[in-house]
Design brief:
By secondary structure, the chain is α+β, with helices and mostly antiparallel strands. Among the domains are: 2-172 and 750-871, P-loop containing nucleotide triphosphate hydrolases (Rossmann fold), CATH 3.40.50.300; 193-245 and 655-739, no CATH class; 430-477, no CATH class. The protein is 66% helix and 12% strand. A seven-stranded antiparallel β-sheet has the order 7-6-5-4-1-2-21, with helices on one face. Strands 8-18-19-3-20 form a five-stranded parallel β-sheet, sandwiched between helices. The longest helix has 151 residues, at 248-398. It is flat, with a radius of gyration of 61 Å.
Amino acid sequence: MRLDALRLFNVKRFDGHGVSIEGLSDGVNVLAAPNEFGKSTSFEALTALFFAKHSSRSADVMSLRPYSGGSPRVEADITTAKGRYRITKQFLGKAVAQVVDLDSGRLIAQADEAEGFIGELLGDATSGPAALLWVKQGVTGLENRTDKENRNETSARTDLLHSVQGEVEAITGGRRMAEIQSTTEAALKELVTATGRPKVGGRYHAALDKRDRLRSEIDRLREDVDALRIALDQRASQNRRLKELNSPEEVAARDAALATAQSQFEAAKSRHEVLERLKAELKLALTNRDAAQRELDQFQSALEAYATVAQELKTLEPLLVEATRHREEAKDAEHRAREAASAAEKAEADARSALEKHDLAQRATEAAKRLQALKDSLDKALSSRTAIEALRADLSAKTVPDSALAELQELENTLLKLRTIRDNARPSVIVDYDSGASQRILMDGVALEPSQERHYSGRTALTAPGIGTIQLRSNSVDDAAELGTCEEKHRQLLTALGTESLAAARLRQDQARDIMGRIETETARLGALAPDGIEALQQEVSACELAAQDLPEDLPERDVLEAEFEAAKTNRHTCIEAQKASSLALDSATNRYVEIATRHSPLDSRFRQMGEQLGAPEEHPARLEQLRAALLAEQTRVDEAEAKVREAQSSATDFEFAQANLQRAQSVKSAAEKESNQLQVEIASHNALIKARSDEAVEEKLNERREELEAAEQGVDAFEHEIAILQRLLSALESARQEAKDLYLAPVMEELRPLLSMLFEDVAITFDDQTLLPESLIRKGQDEAVDKLSGGMREQLSILTRLAFARLLARDNRPIPVVLDDALVYSDDDRIEHMFNALHRQSKAQQIIVLTCRQRAFQKLGGNILAFTPWEG
């Protein structure tokens, strides 16, 4: 098959228009164009044409639709051994598939029949030979891909080798071996999974389940038999223990021990309570004695502190009188200095006021001179502002947004296009009159002029005077919905803009630009006249008018006023320094007074408070003796309470020992009763278990299950023997296939060897026998895995391998074009020229189509140069 032309309409970036690639020939064909020009789009469209059904809505097909929507259309002209054909598909919307015989122009297939025709050309659309030869941008075929993609391409390579390597059948079995392997694998898969585990639901899995179930049941029955025996032994032991616990001698001994312990505990408890009461009385006596001691100590400490405070007050009182006198004297001095400083400040302020009046009078004279110039500037500035406001108002009425203008232009273009399409689709009438004709034919009452084309829709009437009326009817549907919608949008936009046409809107826009220029001119003039704004200029005019109202008649000399001001300022500084000195003296005297008063005031307050608490000084000795006598009485009570406690302790027994003895006797009796109850419960449980196991005949069931298990294990052994035989057979078949791999891949190596020699010296390639793809590269005896090679080396190996498979297809009478979409992106300058030579070598009996954005680099490729041309679809 040879591709002669490819055409696209409304595909991705070709929104609403079409392009075509014409003049493809045998050999190398090159389409070199910049990025975003449509090369990859063409490749995707070509792939969809041959591999996607016209009714498909897959992601690859949906990606062909442009943003504006619609139905993508792809068309290709091809030449085969049977003839020349045109294949057309339209996706989405109204889906179409057609095949036309170009020699006869006859439609030979459409819809599903057209899909069948394409399938016969290329094989299965997902795994046919073309899937090996059409290289999408960025894909080498050696990288990690989906399992489905790998299976499809591997299947295609395998079918091709089976087809071209018929002699291998006699040596390795070829398809026969594959069938044997497939049958063996199917038999093995019925028993185990790919990892060798039993297959769920299979016969081997069921045999294992039965064996494991019997083993589990035997283990359970064995446990039941063991539990029965243990229950019998435990019941006998528990009966003996219960008899011992409930014997009359044991019960009487436990009761007697408990009664004795209870009597001893009651006696010890009575003596213990007496001792505890005496200890409480001793504790109270000790507390009272300590309180009397604290009261005596506090009174003696208070007397000592009272004497100390009295002595300190006696020392501070004369110092406080002296500090008070010094502070009053400093207050008077500071008051006199402050009055002198105030008078000096007033004199300085009067002198400064005289200077300011003199300066104000001078400014009034100058303001009178500047007033007229400022008024002129203000008048001009106000005039400019008024002009700017008028221009801005005019600009608001004239302005047309750029976006609205662009939208209006786009609507008018669309209207022109739709009206042209409508007029071209409508039928028309043209009349050519004879030279002597005096009458005119009327169309709907209007005369038809000679050679003038008149369109009509639906029905129209032609009136031939003196002959009759001819009724014309158009059967086509005049679909004016889109045109009407566009005209309504056009009318609404013109109404919103307040204009009658696009030309008027553009005129308004030009007028708006002119107004904006005039506004800028007036704004610059206003800025020059009033840099700080009209308000600031008005304030300056008002200030000058105010200043010019009171012009002075006679001004004193400024030198005299300045001398008076300097003298007043010097006097003020002197007075202020004197005031500061007097303030410092006042602060020092005040601080000294505050220091002494701060010490004296709390001492005096404390002395008065202590006097109120201690009472009159003459009562202090009697109060002291009274406190000492109270302490002595409390000490006597303590001695008496201690004697009583010692006497009670000597006659008391150990209360805690009696309490522990009672608790032990009680626990012995309680434990015996609890153990007896527990033994009775356990014996009853054993009786029930023994009866249930005896009724179930567990020992007989155990013997039966052991016999069944022996038969089940024999069945499992038989399955395992069968699995081992099948696995051994597969291993033998695999070994035979491995031994024949080199011969099986000989056709590929035969085609690939001369291509490799064009790029590398002393290089060999090994293929993966599963994927039939290059697995490793052997250079100078060194084995290198393909996935470790550079990106350039991998893409070169990928393309050379595809060229070899293309040659095999041609040998099998199934030539398919090789399509490379920017497939050489990592190759250096030297290697890429060798690749060009390889492409030309293989193109002698093979069509190769190269799509690339590297225009300069691919100039050296040569070949038939292709280009995009417009296509109306």
